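batch_manifest entry 22 of 60
target: Protein JINGUBANG isoform X1
source organism: Solanum pennellii
requested by: lab member K.T.
priority: normal
notes from requester: please return tokens only, no post-processing; we will run our own comparison against the previous entry in this batch. if the run fails, retry once and flag.
--- input ---
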Amino acid sequence: MSSTTNNDDEFNVQKSKFSAYDRLSCENSPMNMSPWNQSCNLNATNDDDDDNDDVMKNNRKICLIGSLVREEGHIYSLATKNDLLYTGSDSKNIRVWKDMKEFSAFKSNSGLVKAIIISGDKIFTGHQDGKVRVWKVQPNNPSSFKPAGTLPTFFDIFKASIRPSNYFMSAKHNKASIWIKHWDAISCLSMDHNHGLLYSASWDRTFKVWRADSSKCLESVKAHEDAVNSVVASADGVVYTGSADGTVKIWQREFTPKTIRHVLVHTLLNQECAVTALAVNKSGSVVYCGSSDGVVNFWEKEKKSWTHGGVLKGHKLAVLCLESAGNLVFSGSADKNICVWRKEGCVHTCLSMLTGHNGPVKCLAVEQDKESTTSDQKWVLYSGSLDKSVKVWSVSEMAPIMHNGDVQ
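--- output ---
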């Protein structure tokens, strides 16, 4: 691992060229010849030949826009909102990007940034030390981010420490811990924007529920028998958790006059290999689960029951991250690749395998493209990797199916 550097001269934003990808060793490989294994030519002009024109149109459907590279740490987390991209790494910096250039940065004291989520003018970051840190955008300077606290707050810790009933014995350290604190690394954050609730999942086998505006811990749920690797809060009041114990669980949120609680209503999956990532589509009707065996399972909701819809097999190694947008699903893997899946009815088809990263793809973020239309939904996909880079892709839901390559 290279040492962290703050020298701006060493910073480099690389616009993609035709040779942006790492090529396969066989020059004539079908995967190598596929139009999806090449970045788009942004300066292309129309050609009189209809065939060439069609090829160029297809090339623009799924293509690499560029790469963001700063040799300071492996990329572990991404978040995007209002044309800003936030990147977290195992350095002490959270960097903010705009229009493919560095816009701002702020530094934490804990090092590894495992998760980032944005709510209004606040940025929440989850860290290896088990803390969730809060940052605020300054109203008079949108490029300035100031620390606004830590979850739980010092006052809440002090208040909880007075009562013996707030303690429990942590399995890892074999000592008493306060229930409002995570005693192991934060693995994931999720947000219910409608109710202002922040969810944090941890390797301590719990997920916790926070009031975003007051930083108050509302509930701690002992969810799994091993590390919780993913938590997703759906808009319909349902929360999904996936764990290294091989299970995916569904929790129903219930409000009472004075508090909130989450009740386990269903276990979707119970397998030997670890659950590594979860994603839920916008309507909450489909949930996707990535596993350490490289497989993506999905379930479809009909009324109040869930039906296993099938398995997506496109990766050779563990699926490390998942994102859903429109009719598309993106899966990033330890095999360094990203699969783009399109859902049509009950069928999922692999449109493309995006290659080019030199390390495992650890995180994904997606936002709607400004050029998106009702007839042609387009998305901007960001992929963060342990190769210390972030790649930016343009993906259209109208892209033709990839007929060559390893994915079927």
